[in-house]
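Quick one:
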Amino acid sequence: MSRNSQPTRTRRLIAGSLLALGLAFASTAVLAQPRMTPPPVKEMAAALELSDDQEVAFTRIFEAHIAKTKALMVKHGIDPDGGRPSYRTRRAMKGELDQNREVLEAELATVLTADQLAQLREIGPRNLRP
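Output:
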C-alpha cells in the first residue's frame, strides 16, 4: 500500500504546486490591467502634419475632452489615475462617454480636413475609431 501512496502523494504535491503557481501568475495578470491613459496629443498633432493654427485648436479640443472624461470618471467614483474600472461601472458611464466622444468628433471636424480626420481615426485613440 505504501508503494501506491508514494506516487499519489508526489502527483498531489506537483499538482498543488502547479496550481499555486498558476494562481500566482493569474492574480498578477489581473492586477496589471492597463490604465486608461489619454493619447499623446502632441504626437498625434505631429503625425497629422497640422498647421500652427490647427495644432493650437486640436490641442485645446483634446485637452478639454480629456478633462471632461476625467470629470466623468470622478463623478462615477473612479480614480482617473488608478486602474481600469469594472465592467459594470464602464456600462453605467457608456452613455455619457459616447456623448463626450460625439462632441469631440464634432469639434475636431471643424478643425481638421476630411483626410486628417480619417488619418486620426487610424492612428488615434480607440474611442475615435468607428
